[in-house]
Queue: 4 jobs
Job 1
Amino acid sequence: MQEKLFTYMDSSPSTGLNDGLLGEISIAIQPNMSVRGWPIEAGSRALEGFTAIYDATVIKRLKQAGANIKGSICMSELGFGLAGDTGAMVLNTGEVDSVLITDTMGEARMAACMAGVIGFKPSYGIVSRFGLIGLVPSMECFGILAKNLDDIAKVMSVVVGNDSRDLSMPEFGSGFEIPNFSQVFETDEPIRTCGIIKECLEILEKDESRAFDAVISRLVKSGLQIQEARLKDFDLDRIVHNVIGSVEASSSAGKYDGVRYGHRTNTAKNWNEMYMNSRAESFGLLVKNYLFQGAYFQYENYDAFIDAARIRTRLLAQTEAALEGLDVLMLPTRHAAFDPFSACTINTVYDVFSWTLLSNITGHPAITLPGMVTFGDVDLGLQLIGSRFQDARLLSTADRLIDLA
Amino acid sequence: MAYEAVIGLEIHVQLNCTTKMFCDCPNRPGDDPNTNICPICLWLPGAVPRFSMETLEKATLACLALNCEVQPRSAFDQKVYYYPDLPKGFQLSQHHMPLARRGSIEIMDEKGKPKKLRLHNVHMEEDVAKLVHETEGRIPISLVDFNRAGTPLIEIVTEPDMRSPYDAMEFLKALRIQLRYTGCADCSMEHGTMRCDANISLRPEGGDQLNTKVEVKNMNSIHHVGNAIAYEIKRQTESLINGEPIVLHTRLWDPEKRITTAMREKFEGPCVPDPCVTQILVTDEWLQNMASKLPEMPNQKINRFVQQYGLMHDEAAQMTLERELSEYFEAVVRLGASPRTVANWIAAQLLPAIKERGYEFTTSPVTAERFAGLITLLEKEEINSNSAKSVLIKLFETVLTPEEIMDQFSFGQVSDTGALGVIVDQVITENASAVENYKNGNKKSIGFLVGQAMKLSKGKANPKRLQEIFKETLI
């Protein structure tokens, strides 16, 4: 069982300092986070045989805090979409306390939802991306699966903060602060008001609507204030993510040429053919489609990309406005069964993630809590979106909502 | 129909920063292949570019020196193309939001009239790796050297304001002077630290339309740029006369055959905003700080040299061609030598001597102190100008002071009336007919007599004193 879930297990004795903050915590990662000496193939033939020559900043910090990084698990090609629910399964075997996966479209929240655990995606820019191999730099970030909020806060307190090797992070201290995860659950600040998004509730199916209404009324009964918020362009998040994501992916994957590492073709007469054949033989159909689509917008329809970037700015402004005066926005996370081997179109992938894209587009922190939105056969996750850089507050709000519901 | 040429240039200039543009690797492309490399400039998976502040500072100084408007917000784009010298598939450049816009450089045109040539923009760009083509036995192989990958460049894009090869060459010379002054770039076309592509089109003389242009590359000296443009004007004129259409494409200059040959269709890859390098915000305060770091530029310096030192405009222009030269000139003058003598001696004697020996002003053994000593000896008439030239040569060859050289090698000028009198007497005895001519009113003969006396003294006599003694003796 273990062999199937893990693609690589660290055979060296744990170098973790047991008295470190994470001395008791064992972790599984996706093979797209660089660990010095580990095979880091990011689920793609394009990185076949690639061994990381340095630790990602996140990995370095986890090691320093004494975490036991056990091994890496199966992942979708270059992190596009979900590779089944391996991450959550590893967590549920009890092998590890936490699984770290890249969250580009909502993967951490979706995997959590499928397996009944908690999935967290922090604010964009508070965790270094140095050493993380991805596809969509402006949307993806480090995400965590865990069984309880405590473990998430512990891991976050270790990995968060400025990194001189990733200058795309905001300069903390100039107007906003690094979230402090050390005493998240000891606050006595009351929850004020939570928002529900009108445009989002309108597209729920009947039973889903009942399940969501049920949890809202339980929360209201427990004394929570609920307010309706507006997000006019909510339904555009899918097209925005799709256009910008594929354009960035097309550029990001440009470096996989099969020359210095990864699969190189045997059948080429010149370098041009070598590139084309190596890439053709390396990428799976789904990633290929995505890269082609991105190249189309780059070469043939740049205006559409500019439109998407403009709507993205608008979505960010609308989300900020919706969060004004609220603790969090609440929406369901629907989990669709996802078979990576049959779901080979971009559309089916976006179908799966349509509820979680928003915070990847806008960079807000988001978390999914399991088992709270249920009715009959319906079992949705409760997704909370917090204000940017208020990640600690989001975790403490989640903690108290669990108690209230 | 008469045609006129419309010429615009795109110039890449390597900035002499300590490090590369997005990582800490040394900016030394000439080192042993693939020694200055890291995961970032190799773009290994997981690398995140880290933009260097030094690049921004030096690029900004260059923009200020070219009278550009530095933009409050600029950003990097990915210029997407696939080639073995760029294995990440895109080059980081500033396409949509360049660091600076507009700007200008003034040149003198062929008629000697000042002409302002405008710049369209100046932007930052990373250089790509270098391909080396070799053979292994009989198999041709291509090697990639990443030392140059990610080194900092600025690209200067001009408006199509040039009308002749002369304009283009003068522009490049003026550009080089301005940029070298800032100390940010070496600007050597021969060494590839300055590279120039020319865009050339023709139109009926006096028109204002822009016709289809042809891009010419591969010129590695300013003269090649002039020659390539001249050739291209001729080639396009013939095409037009023969009724052949001009097609947008790229041509290569062949310096051996002195012709351009078609290379490929002009290629413009897409440019999309880079999601990793943050946008660059420039505040007024920072910009003022940068402006204060800009040295006195050539035009200001020429005016000051004319006013402060009484140089002629041409002399001042010559003394300011290079920043090191102008600083050397001023150092010599500060030591008490008279400015015009210094300027003339630098231009006529020192510059050729330095060049001949392969020195720069900063590395030459003839320091400002030693050169000032020489000029002072000359001005005090302790040596004559002939001997001064000999002393100058010895200054390169020895570590002695000009005075020591003068004494040791007996270059001292003889001004003593007694010693000169003996020589004068001998010349008068030996040149009776010239003496006769002089006495009969041919005053020019005295020059011949002085010349003979100089010869006798082995060049050491004071020619002014000699003339005086001849005049007194031959009354």
Job 2
Amino acid sequence: MKSLSASPYASRAEIMAEFQGDEAVLAHELLGLRQAPGAALQTRIASLAKATSPRSTATWPPWGRWRPHQRWAAGALTLALMLALALAVAGPQRVLAQVQRLLGYLPGYGFVDPDQTRVLTAPVTVERDGVSVTVTQLIAGTDKTQVTFVGEGLNELPSDPNATRVEIVLVLPNGGVLTPDETRLEHGSARLAFPPIPAEVEQVTLRIARLPLVRPGAAPENWSLALSLRPAAGDFPAAELAAPYVPEGAHSTVMGITLDVVEVVEGTEQTAVTIRMSAAAGTGIDQVMAPDPWGIRLSDDSGHAYWVQPDPGLGSGGSVVVQQVVIAQPGAPPAPAVWEQTYAFGPLSPSTGHASLRLDEIAVRLDADESFRLDLGASPHIGQHWLLDEILDVYGAALHFTGATLVEFAQLNASGQPQQYYQLKFDVAVTDAPDLALQRLNLWSAEQGLFGDGHWTPEGWEVFLAFEKLPHGRVTVSLRGAYADLRGPWVVQWDRPGEHPEQRPRSLHPQAADTHHGLTLAVAEVVASDRLTHVQLAAEGLPAGGRVTEIRPTTGLLGTVSLGLQDQWGQAIPTSQDVRWQPPGTEWAYDPLALTFEPLPPLAQSLTLVVPEVIVQFPDDGSLSVDVPPAEALTFTQHEAEYEVVTSGGDGSGPAYHPLVERSQTWPVDLQMKIAGYTVHYTQAFIEREAGNGWRRDTLVLTGAAPGPDPNGWRLAALQGARTQRPDGSVVTAAESPGGANAAGLAYGWVSPPAPGVAPVAMLRLEVNDPHTSELLSGRYELAFDAVQVAVSGPWRLGWSMVLAAP
Amino acid sequence: MRTPFGRSTLPLDAAAFAELYQAHLAAVFNYCLFRVGDRQLAEDLAADVFERAWRARGRYRPDQASFATWVLAVARNAVVDCQRHNGRHPMVALPADLLDDAPLPDTAVEAADEQARLKAMIATLPEADQDLIALKFGAGLPNRQIGEFLGRSEGAVGVALHRVMRKLRASWEISDEVLER
């Protein structure tokens, strides 16, 4: 993960040090005006982010290069982390105190003391004008009061993604009002965490000024629901209220960073694991970053590997565990950096006695104090180049500065006005250490520099110092810190308490195959355990160099055939989201032909798997030339984006909208390309523009009618760019770019799948900015492609017997 | 973390945004607080700023500005929008009496605590000076980054800050005298 959060802000003491005498008195007073942001604000921001986080409703295109889609995927991850941050407002002391008196863990709520907890006597529903609001749950604990309500009858009413302001309170009998510290909103529904209700209070009123995400006036407002409380003792099933345990000897130290498994709670719905990462003093690590949740691997010795659970929304009792403690250790510098957080995984298999947690990389910020001097001379000029041979060492990684060039550039300042700046752009070869990969550099120059930075790009490292005025004379290039990924792995193993009767997974290799459009799918292996059913498929009849990249959940965009596994009685076995099959000693890699379902029903004897459609990628060459008009010939207006943004999590039923983008006028083109037996014909073009303060991204979009299927009935789905030659002669290639086919500047194209009443469209996107100036770069682009993806429709029906499967 | 293709080309990835949110909230909130003087409004603005930042995070270019600069630019726009909406009236108005040396009523003297005076004096400064004070003492930006934000050199920021402090100090002394009467 990139870590940008080394505080850029001066401490109080640093600010005070800048002033003397009367000014220092005034500075002291001014600093006294500062206030801490309230917990409610932090929560509100987290909920705003959740409510506005975009999530794609479309699963197309399949190529994985649809940038907004990627951002949405990242958004989902962000949500989980932001939610974690929201509850971090409790503060380290409170959380630590909570952990110290652990009495039980309730999925969807967290740690709970049942003797001190009250719940709703019964769900409460109020109905007005066809809309009903039901308070389904209230858990009043010693640390918080969690209220969940669900609105129904809202589906046909207009939604407002901006109506995220929460005006929901709990009113106490004495008139006191509790406002939520944490909110999780869906359309008409919410889960809220209020402060604790005083112990003597037995009845409260939930007041909802307006249902969440519902447009003002679109539904009844000013709801009032009277809620009665009673003691919860005995309400929580013992199986749910699992007790935490502290695993013995569960730690691993690599490169001065110790990974501890501090505590584990095993429930029927979740396994919560609290981990702590701490850097030893003297390592130069001044910050340890939260690991990417997908990089944390929990596994057992039976062959199950467990995913970190995503936030399931309001409809489920599960939840990402939301505790995070960043402990600043007082004491002599350098202070060790510590990060502690609890993650929720799926429940562990009942039949395994050992668990293991692994982290391959940990991102850190490293302190650095390295520098060299460069003499620019008395009157350097733009374009002047200096040869250098300076090597800076960063914990074994080497930065070899071989040259510097003085350039000028214009950038919009914060007032929106263009301003001229100067940069010393360095030629730097970065050699990572075997166990350390540099990600970002903090540079500075004491004499004249404005700021400096170094970061990796698909074109290589960009390292520069910026100046407001033309620099001259001696310049000190100082490296003050660096962000890096430290490579482990850190592996922590522990024994689970209690009895775990061994029940080995059953494995078999049935003879099951089916062929459609010349493509055969066969079942290579089936594994059935108490946690999953793993089906490994194999594909035959692929073109040379071809591979299956995706199994589609339906045929086409709105197909009626769905991916599914069912037993001999037609009982559907749902797909599993929180566990995968990974035998001990094997490395996991994404395999689209590996499918995971829930465990089989006890009497399942024969199974049928239905696969509606697969996406196949194979190599072939094509090329295209396209002209981009000069910027002055383009006029931009706002349009609704073609993609849809959904504003809520959960089941996707929340309000959706199309964001606005700037788009140029459309002009006709006549561009044809033959590739893999298809003829793609683009007939229209326009530029789509995204812009912010000081930057701009222009994307050329070509559209045309989709080519028909090939003689096998395979439909073109996507085109993979391999090389782009820009009008200025610069070239981007997938082969030479570490970004591969995802490198910026490469074209990517796709074809929409068939849908009733909608003609399929071929589309191509290409970023057309000068990578150095961000200006639109007009002229001729030469594009080359080296692979296609095609959609092959089934459905394949694969049936086999499980009777012969011996444990 | 590395992507399957190598290092991430998007420094502002998912986890980074969460980190940044935590790291910059206090600065953004206090910048807004210094600019509008009202805690509730500052909270509203800070929430608005992070919503805007969240929506626009895909556009953030770390190679062109630090996150602090970017998010504070968003905050500044939010403040300007808000003031435009409110007719550019400062949220904390300096009592006219305090400026024109007229004697204050006793009740006003009792109510005018030090912080309220200071807030009121900030509200009477030109907008550019308010911005400087808010960036320096509210957000806590070092002069170098204020320079990046305002498009001025570090030295120029230092000089401007010295001037505005002198100005503020003078107002402070005048109001001291007024209150002592």
Job 3
Amino acid sequence: MTANGYLQIALYVSALLLLAWPLGLYMARIYDHQLPVGVRWLAPVERGIYRLCGIRPEYGMSWTRYAFALLMFNLLGLLAVYVLQQVQAWLPLNPQGLANVSPDSAFNTAVSFASNTNWQGYGGETTMSYLTQMLGLTVQNFVSAASGMAVLVALMRGFTRRESQHVGNFWTDMTRSTLYILLPLSLILSLMLVGQGVVQSFEPYRTVQLVQPVEFDQPVLNPDGQPLQDAAGQPVREKKIATEQLIALGPAASQVAIKQLGTNGGGFFNVNSAHPLENPTPLSNWLEMLSILLIPAALCFTFGRFVKDDRQGVAILAAMTIVFVALLALCVGAEQSGNPLFQRLGLDTAASDQAPGGNMEGKETRFGIVNSALWATATTAASNGSVNAMHDSFTPLGGLAPMWLIQLGEVIFGGVGSGLYGMIVFALVGVFVSGLMIGRTPEYLGKKVEAFEMKMASTAILIPCLAVLLGTALAVVSEAGRAGVANPGVHGFSEILYAFSSAGNNNGSAFAGLSANTPFYNLLLAMAMLLARYGVILPVLAIAGSLAAKKSIPPSAGTLPTHTPLFVALLIGTVIVVGALTFLPALALGPIVEHVQMITGH
Amino acid sequence: MIKELKPALLMLLVMTVLTGGAYPALVTGLAQLLFPDQVGGSLLKVQGKTVGSALVGQPFSDPRYFWGRPSATSPMPYHAAASSGSNQGPLNPALEEAVKQRIALFKGSDPQQTAPIPVELVTASASGLDPHISPAAAAWQLPRVARARGLSERAVANLVARHTEERTFGVLGEPRVNVLALNLALEQHELTP
């Protein structure tokens, strides 16, 4: 790697941590309802929303009530996105006359956006009308993110409240997350992105004259729209000459901003943030990449402030950052070393100030190797899942890093809210296990960790693992599952494993060669997404309710401190051991075998 | 659970108006005011005629032009209403086949050029619309373009240098050359040398 590569990475990580700090403290004030002066003018809007919806903001909810409110809200959101896709052809703001989406794909997308996964089974500019993108996808980008943040706030209250039956009010937590945090940040980011060239328009797609007409051949279609075949069963192709280029437009910037900030990741265009009109410059790339991890990192500081001990948040952030940087090094290293095939064919693969070198298949010139690998690591550490390079074309180890980051349970930064509540679940397991080992009372932040919390924590950790491994197994043994594979050999297995890792941890990125827009994958992946999202949220809320009902005990000599480097190591150990034990066998069959094949030239 | 149905429904409506209606409309309004060129795709105009977007690549195969990166969109390359990468895995025989064909094409385009071809010139971009090539990839093609146009290599090198963008703030991203802008400048140069 070049010196510039190290510099870009160092700049990114330090800017992230520097910006996360003030934002984290700001969010702590918002959830505490100590509104900073700059946003006080929004308070009447907030009150107006409650009045319109008939909500009493001071009404405390039990954890079950809180869960019901969230489930109901997400279910209605899911239905709205589904219905919109089913009728978009007859609605306005559809200048390209895009057809209604097939029911299975629409269901998959609805689940995907309501569950903050944003797996992109559809093709963006070729599938979704402007109206669907705005009223369906953009709205869920906001509120699914806000739902995750609300669950985290409820869990944090579990630690701060004593002998209370209530964990807060879902409607106020969700509204405040949207109004004071997600909306203002998205507004700023979307304007910065337009300044860089991201489109924001309701005009139809634009036709331009090509400077040089291009000749290409395309399959001939019969009147039913199916490819015509000749007597030998080969598809018939015809030569065509194109003199024009049709450029897709749309209200992209407003959606891209929240896609990144809300760890959503579903792109406006098919190739997501690799598209030059969704991510045109190195600066837009840097801003988008920063937005991926910003809120998840900042929430660690919010957590510290909430439990009145900033060191607790810093310890968790340190654990996240260490794992992130380690896997980032693996990814950048593997992609820069590249594919031995390219050296064998006599290409120039050295990195310099004149060329990016390395494995450039499926990457954009303006991002090169470093920014593609950095993005891949950030987007899978967080449960974002947007891409600026094609992960399917990464080298085996370059692809292993993002896949394993997803499989660790999306707790290395993770989704907004969901990352930190997932990490706190691991922290509970960590203090419990170490408490048993060294004979200290298992307690975390003044709350005793007992059998009920451990049952719920284990459930929250095991359900995504189950969704990933069971889903992969089902797809591998079924005809419909194997039919979707694009690349031959073990890479095909990696495509399936990646798809279920992504859906089963609500990430949403893909080894995109997999043809997943089929009824089989649409339904099976939707099940995985639902299981992973609500199979974790419900146990986490149960933990919140149980902790809130407990007394708070002051730390004693028998308390294991949870802000020390030792605890950071313990937390990393817990995450890694669970992730490695569960997924190493599957990874060995995919990327690891492929790596061995690659370096031995088979 | 049923008690939360009414607030859930109303909240979804309010949030839809706020984040799905007001927010994109506000961004669109402000963006059109502040960045009128960017909102519609940063279009390039030559003598009043729109010839493309400064951000979206176009296919070139004539030796008189610089060529951009291979594009995996279908059916035509650089199909800007259906972006796509190749998604070929590193050991896919189809990748090896495709790269070999592209190498043959480039070597055939300039048999005298013996320097190794920069890797990104024969590997497909992520979007299929990559507007850029690296400075090394431009340098590799420079003798061919100069010869085909009957220009001196120095004149073409000057144009390339003028269309080379350095890293943003000297740090971010990669140095790059916008292929469409460079080719338009070449045309312009022939008219008014």
Job 4
Amino acid sequence: MEDGSLQFNRETIFALAAFFFAGMAQASGAGDPALGAAVFKKCQSCHQVGDRAKNRVGPQLNDIIGRTAGELAGAKYSKSMIQAGQDGLVWTEETLDRFLESPKSLVAKTRMSYRGLKDPDDRANLIAYLRAFSKGSTSAQNVPETGQGAGIQLDPVVLATVGDAEYGEYLSSECLTCHQSSGSNDGIPGITAWPTEDFVIAMHAYKQKVREHPVMQMMAGRLSDEEIAALASYFNGLE
Amino acid sequence: MKLTRRVFMGSGAAAATALAAPMAFAGGHGKPRVVVVGGGAGGATAARYIAKDSKGAVDVTLIEPSRMYYTCFFSNLYLGGIKAIDDLGHSYGNMAAGGVNVVHDWAVGVDRDAKTVTLAGGASVPYDKLILSPGIDFVEGAVAGWDLSSQNAMPHAYKGGSQTELLKAQIAAMPQGGTFAMVAPPNPYRCPPGPYERVSMVAHYLKANNPTAKIIVADPKPKFSKQGLFQEGWGKHYNGMIDWIGDDFGGGNVSVDPGAMTVTIDGEVSKVDVCNVIPAMKAGRIAELAGVTDGKFAPVNAIDMSTKADADVYILGDASQQGDMPKSGFSANSQAKVCANAVRGALTGSRVFPAKFSNTCWSLIDTNDGVKVGATYEATDEKIAKVDGFISATGETADVRKATYEESEGWYAGITADMFG
């Protein structure tokens, strides 16, 4: 009896609080989707969102709000994420906020190697951005899409080059001084299990100095088309 | 037909080598044997990669006296109070599990005719290919008044571990308003920005704990790595605390008295509370004992890091004289991969790919104020030659500097995982 009434009260309070905070965020503009688009740049090496979004290293994020964790067809998930979904984890603004703050604190063995977004404003803006691509939103057309690569022109022949994975394994040893073979991210992102095409585009974007980063521009700058294909082929085979 | 080991060896081309070598440690498998001396950024990486990539076809022995390896890189962050000593320690357990025969002993001699390495414990270890990665030792008499027996009074703290802890304890015990002196090394030396990152991290510690303390640096060089970035940072974070005396102002004319705790710079005697003497460096002693050095370091062929003196003896990292690469953990790790690929190819016939080298050195000036310098390199007939490079700019935003520092943490996790498995 006492348990029942306690639970009832807690649920009521939770529902009220969620309603209250959601209302406040809208009213005060706490989450700004335009600022969130900039934050999303941290996500887009693995995730896409928008009209042509596809599953890449991580699942595409259209309609993420309201989606059950680990259930999107065609996306790669850890067992731990699928289990979390079966245990009732649904992506709401609140659960996304907790996950984004520290992915492994919410889902211990998630494949997402991102170390976490510590700034609450960044998280609110990012969630506002993702909300714009979820059901019931009318604002998607006002939000810039960021999911479609780095805006470089690549000859289809370059993209279609089949890499020599054994050479790629040797070349990859140079990457592994900084990027961990486990895919862990302790300040430098994991690069394992990238779809080959994304990897090739990213490396050419560094090589053409479209994508920013002095170390990566230097490292990619001296790789030939064949060497980039070789690396892509090798890393694609790592889990 | 069943081939016994004896028959196989007796009929194989390896017969001469196998018979000449005393069977002590790893011998007798009929597999090619690689012995690696020194378990740091060069040696640990080479041992691990050869064992991993040869999938058991090569017998790999790593000889390293320490049970725990304390990295010299990031040790300045421990002096600054930003990292704990335990953050810097790594065991060889994963490496042993990964198929490397890890022997905790000192290598005290190399017989290049018999192709054996002698250990302090008395054993003799045969090799087909020997990789020496012994790091540095100090040139005797390089700083007047200092020798190794003075290293407790005036630590060098330029090999990771106990010396680093000693220097940290001495800095913590400085009286209020006391003086920390550094005698900086002449080129070439391990980790070119290292002494200046150290000055920054000591200043960081003193600013919080001993704000009226002073830092004097006597430097035999007229200029140093990332000088513009460091001096900008010193002005910004530690204004007035650091007095750098370069060669133009007599910084190279220096002597110390460890008993009296004095430093004499260009004739002027100063009483100091802590004195960090970083003497001129040479290759770790075993390289000299192996007879592969020429002067202070060991000249190598850029294509595979083999020594000029002996095609079956390789030198990695700080001990090598290779050309344009700085002496750094990153460089040693990079050289190790080129060497591992070449050694495995020579012993098993696996594919040998072109040598590619790279290096990036991150330095921390103050909390979240990180800077970096890096370059790529290739092998030419003469040396390892620089291809391209970059350096952080002065006047960068706080966000860029913070991102650079976070990246350095990622690198530390990356390279230590790459070294030790």
